[in-house]
Design brief:
The protein is α/β, with parallel strands linked by helices. It folds into two domains: 201 residues, 3-Layer(aba) Sandwich (Rossmann fold), CATH 3.40.50; 54 residues. It is 46% helix and 13% strand. The chain has a seven-stranded mixed beta sheet with strand order 2-1-4-5-6-3-7. 30% of the residues are buried.
Length: 293
């Protein structure tokens, strides 16, 4: 009897130790908590974003064509119509990620989402970080059974040499057994059209047994995005239009001529003209004027 009791006690202690080591089951995501979330790979979960950092769509200047195309695509998706994954690529600071966030807000407002009665699917924005792309299948596994519709957004997506996570992304976007869930769309921004550095593609071409197939393997990732939106460096007029739009929206107390001179001088010190540079100038100007944005 004593021997059996000792064995049972040992087994109970072993079971308790295993319970402490085992990770807790992930809590079911409550997507009613917010309009936007950040995907956390470990432990798996969706962190609600109480306030999304974004600008109104009307303040994004010099990208009218791209904005209209992304808006149309997002509207169709929100209405349960066919829509494409979108890759926003090109010049730095020209509003790629700002457009994704602004389009999400604009479509929700247009369609009255988030304010209508229960039972109507909302349009949620879920950000996944570049380093968590390998966990994208797990993320989609949580989204697939949900009633809402989701734009999964990855900012500054790119892949370097020896990075193989792009293969899992390809399978998720198209080509896998399950494929992309019907209620999920994938938007990504990148400075590279093919998401790979040029020297990486050239190296594949020079060292592979079949160069064309090796390069095609990597270039085909961008082909999974049905909508390509290119962003180019702003002209001086476009840059000044951005500055004036921000200044007017935030009612900055400054004369037009002084605003223009300051904006041009600021862009020269930055060595660039873009929406990001325009916003940085406005922040500096508002601080010097003692005005809040």
């Amino acid at each position: 009897m004593r021997g059996e009791r000792a064995i049972l006690e040992q087994l109970e202690r072993l079971a308790a130790a295993l319970d402490r080591l085992a990770p807790p089951a992930p809590a079911k995501a409550d997507f009613a908590r917010a309009e936007a979330f950040v995907w956390q790979a470990s432990p798996e979960g969706f962190l609600p974003v109480c306030h999304v950092n974004r600008q109104p769509l009307g303040l994004l200047k010099g990208i009218d064509l791209a904005a209209q195309q992304l808006l149309d695509n997002t509207r169709r998706f929100a209405r349960r119509l066919p829509a494409n994954n979108a890759l926003l690529w090109g010049a730095r600071g020209m509003g790629k990620s700002s457009l994704v966030k602004a389009a999400h807000a604009e479509v929700r407002q247009e369609l009255g989402l988030g304010t209508v009665s229960k039972g109507v699917p909302d349009l949620k924005l879920v950000e996944i970080h570049r380093e968590d792309i390998a966990s994208l299948p797990a993320c989609l596994g949580h989204l697939r059974p949900a009633a809402d519709r989701f734009i999964v957004f990855c900012d500054d997506l790119s892949f370097d040499r020896d990075d193989t996570s792009y293969k899992s992304l390809k399978a998720v976007l198209e080509g896998g057994i399950e494929g992309r869930p019907e209620n999920v769309l994938f938007y990504a921004t990148s400075n590279r059209r093919h998401l790979m550095p040029r020297d990486m593609l050239e190296n594949e071409r020079s060292t592979a047994i079949n160069p064309s197939e090796a390069v095609e393997e990597k270039v085909s990732l961008s082909d999974r995005f049905g909508l390509w939106l290119g962003f180019h460096n702003a002209t001086q007029d476009e840059y000044l239009d951005m500055v004036k739009s921000y200044a007017s929206h935030h009612r900055l107390n400054i004369q037009s001529g002084e605003l223009t001179r300051g904006a041009l001088e600021w862009s020269m010190t930055r060595g660039a003209r873009s929406g990001r540079v325009a916003w940085q100038y406005i922040q500096d100007l508002a601080g010097r004027l003692g005005q809040r944005l």
